[in-house]
Amino acid sequence: MTSANKFRESQQSQHAQRGARGSSVSLMDKWRGYKHHHRTTLQSSFAKMLREPLQTLLTVVVIAIALTLPTALYISVENIRQLSGGVESSAQMTVFVKKGARSGAIEKLGEQLGELPGVASVSYISAEAALEEFNALSGFGSALQYLDENPLPEAFLVQPLLLNDSAKLVTEIRQIALVEDVQLDMEWLRRLDALLDMGRKLVLALGAALGVGVILVVGNTIRLAIQSRRDEIVIVKLVGGTDAYVRRPFLYTGVLFGFFGAFIAALMLTGLGLWLEPSVNTLASLYQSQFRLTGLGISGFITLLGIGGAVGLAGAWISVGQHMRDIKPR
Amino acid sequence: MIRFDNLSKRYTGGLEALRNVSFEMDGGEMAFLTGHSGAGKSTLLKLLMLIERPTAGNLLINGKNLSRLSKSRIPFYRRQLGVVFQNHQLLFDRSVFENVALPLQVSGYTPGEIGRRVRAALDGVGLLDREKSSPIELSGGEQQRVGIARAVVHKPKILLADEPTGNLDPQLSAEIMALFKRFQDVGVTVLIATHDIDLINKMNLRIMRLNQGELELDGLAHDIS
Q1: What residues of B are in contact with residue A18 (Cβ under 8 Å)?
Q2: What is the pLDDT of residues B100-136, one digit of tens each?
Q3: What domains appear along chain A, each with residue ranges and CATH number?
Q4: Does B63 have pLDDT greater than 90?
Q5: Which residues in B lie closer than 8 A to residue A234 (C-beta atoms)?
Q6: pTM score, two decimals?
Q7: Chain A contact for B39, CB < 8 A?
Q8: Least CA distance to B184: which residue of chain A?
Q9: Rounded to an integer, what distance in angstroms lies between the CA atom of residue B54 and that of residue B60?
Q10: Residues of chain A positioned with their CB less than 8 A from the CB of B81
Q11: Closest Cα to residue A256, out of A304, A302, A309?
């Protein structure tokens, strides 16, 4: 039996070799083996996904859609916020003039306001005009007839150039002797802010719900993978594979699913942005606005990939933790 | 090397698979485990592989009590074992080489080291030229030899085999047994569960016979018969 002799020789020579360099694997070799194992695990996980292209594609597309919806909503909210930032600069302030001021002084005040830095425009609303408007809009017109005199003050509407300047403007204008009070007309801005706040919460809720959806989809895919590779898991465990070793390919698969799903979602969102851009620009130009659509961007693209990978990992982790327990030996 | 100390195993269903089994095997010893099916041979091997845990008694390997081994240490214990399974348990979606490489991969060997050791092991069982084949292309005897190569590729101190010649003809069985004998010659402790009486009698080695969970006989083949 030549093979027998050969075996004995090789066994003995290797024993001698081992004696010379120690029987355990060196730390450096272990690290190299570990790195190699991670790389090949990633490669084989990817290869296994490609082996069932249709199934893989379906899963990836489901994940992509689940990631696209909240991200699209998020981008919309961010754009509206940006848009509102543009409109904010048109926030007006109302300057009330002290009672009994002479018309000449009021005229002068109007000029003074117009010359202040940061003021875009000033318009005068006389007490009579204000009363008329109040009459027309409030429906208390008849009640006003019982008043001896017009209770409304003379006023100016001041349009600041930039919203950021308006606070400074308010204090400046207050210091003018003839000015009774200044009111910043921000009510509608607060409403928009509240609306945007709601939008952001909606993004979070939708994101969380669909994130759970992605976790379930990935979890189910991993569950099927574990079932179909049951024999392999048993053998790996019997030859001394640690739980981490057994888990690893499935975790990689989960990350890959999440990653590819996010990648397709990011592509779809980028495509959507490019598709919408001309219409948005036309609309903006009709409103003489400088508004430009802000898409996903490179950092958004990368963040989305990260989120996808993390959610995929979470799904795989949960699934592996649950289904590995059923496989003997433990 | 291996010491069973009054070991009993009762399954949750109530079946008592092993009852007060005590024996000892020295390092480099080779022995057969025999008995009818259901006598407890497989249970005994499963206890050694830590697939099952004993319900009473102690199992010591190299003086270490396995019942004190934590769950996280089990894989490292299993790396000291080589196991040949009855139905060889090869993975058909991988080549012969990859099957044999598995115990080395889980222990974190480098690719170069894995290549060297796998080829040495395949050479030892006479299948070096089949490393790229799929196990499905091999005959039953060849598959079993691949299983043996996988069991010894990481040079275990203990080699366990569960009916390694189960489906093989006498000639192939004899070859497989000769293979096991060679591992014993290089210092491996070999324990083989089998009911192939003819084969055992030819080899005059230690025999332990189980009967309904009890160790009925323990001695050299020629002394017993």
Answers
A1: 155
A2: 999 998 988 888 899 999 999 999 888 999 999 999 9
A3: 31-86+191-326 (no CATH), 92-185 (3.30.70.3040)
A4: no
A5: 89
A6: 0.73
A7: no
A8: A8
A9: 12
A10: 240
A11: A309
Q: Is the distance from CB of B212 to CB of A35 less than 8 angstroms?
A: no
Radius of gyration for chain B, computed over Cα atoms and rounded to the nearest angstrom: 17
Region of poorest pLDDT, from A31-35, A153-157, B40-44, B83-87: A31-35
Question: Residues with Cβ < 8 Å from A172, sequence gap 6 or more?
Answer: A116
Report chain B's mean pLDDT, rounded to a whole number. Answer: 89
Choose between B80 and A288: higher pLDDT: B80
Under 8 Å between Cβ of A35 and A42 = no
Interchain proximity B75–A237, CB inside 8 Å: yes
Give the CB-side neighbour count of residue B220, counting CA atoms within 13 A.
5
**Over the stretch A58-80, which tens digit does the pLDDT of each residue have?**
999 999 999 999 999 998 888 88
- Order the strands of the A179-184 sheet from edge to edge: A119-125, A155-160, A93-97, A179-184
Give the count of beta carbons closer than 10 Å to the beta carbon of residue A230. Answer: 12
List the single residue in A7, A232, A243 with the smallest CB-CB distance to B91. Answer: A232
Which ranges of chain A does DSSP label H, i.e. alpha helix?
A: 2-21, 27-51, 53-88, 103-115, 127-138, 141-144, 163-174, 187-228, 230-238, 243-286, 297-323
What is the spatial distance between Cα B198 and Cα B210, in angstroms, rounded to a whole number? 17
The distance from CA A49 to its chain's CA centroid, rounded to whole angstroms, is 29
Strands B158-162 and B81-84, how do they pair? parallel
Q: Is B22 helix (H, G, I), strand (E, B) or coil?
A: strand
8 Å CB contact of A238 and B51: yes
Q: What is the ipTM of this complex?
A: 0.89
Nearest 5°: CA angle at B117, between B115 and B120? 105
Query: Does residue B182 contact residue A7 with C-beta atoms inside 8 Å?
Result: yes
* Amino acid residing at A245: Y
Tokens of A230: 């049951």
Q: Do A235 and B102 touch (CB under 8 A)?
A: yes
Whether the CB of B11 is below 8 Å from some CB of chain A: the reply is: no
Residue B84 Ramachandran class (φ > 0 left, ψ -120 to 50 alpha, else beta): beta
Residues listed for chain A: 330
**Could you give phi then psi for residue A313, rounded to 5 degrees?**
-60, -45
- With CA atoms as reference, the chain A residue closest to B127 would be A3
Is B182 near chain A, with CB under 8 Å? yes
The residue-averaged pLDDT of A203-228 equals: 91
Chain B residue numbers touching A30 (CB-CB < 8 A): 108
Report d(CA A96, CA A183) in Å as an integer: 8
The amino acid at A320:
V
Terminal-to-terminal C-alpha distance of chain A: 40
Alpha carbon distance B3, B39 (integer Å):
19
Contacts of A302 (CB under 8 A, 6+ apart): none
